Amino acid sequence: MRKRGALAAAILITLSLGIVSQSFAQPGMRMRGSGGWGPGHHYSRMYNAQTVETLSGEVVSVDTITPSRGMSQGVHLTLKTAKETISVHLGPSWYIDNQDMQIQPGDKIEVKGSRISFTGKPAIIAASVKKGNEVLTLRDDKGFPAWSGWRYDNQQPQR
Prior knowledge:
By secondary structure, the chain is an alpha+beta fold. It has 2 helices and 8 strands, in the order H-E-E-E-H-E-E-E-E-E. A 5-stranded mixed beta barrel has the order 1-2-3-5-4. It has a two-stranded antiparallel sheet with strand order 7-8.
């Protein structure tokens, strides 16, 4: 009889811990992974520190896209510069929507990011966006996404 009681208590505790851990997750965030936006996903590996450039221009549109199958939605904008109109990929919607800086059509911005080819067209995967005196940092110099949290590089914690 004691064994059944102990087993029932263990099951109850395990279920309770699962419910509590779910309640700490932020709304819109997935408990497993980052919706395909993590540093190991093929989309994030498209970022190339060797092709980083800075563009300035006016935001034409702000949209949500799903960059590839299996990924959650992301925020994308179209930027008109003096030389071209180009797609700029910012990051996952659940992250961008929770930032203080909001980007709207008509905004004058400066984007630093990696130039890539996406669906056969030029695009930028943004590392940072500057609007006025505000800067939204999305990736570090190596392309590691800000929404992916801590990482360990040579045993040293970094953000």
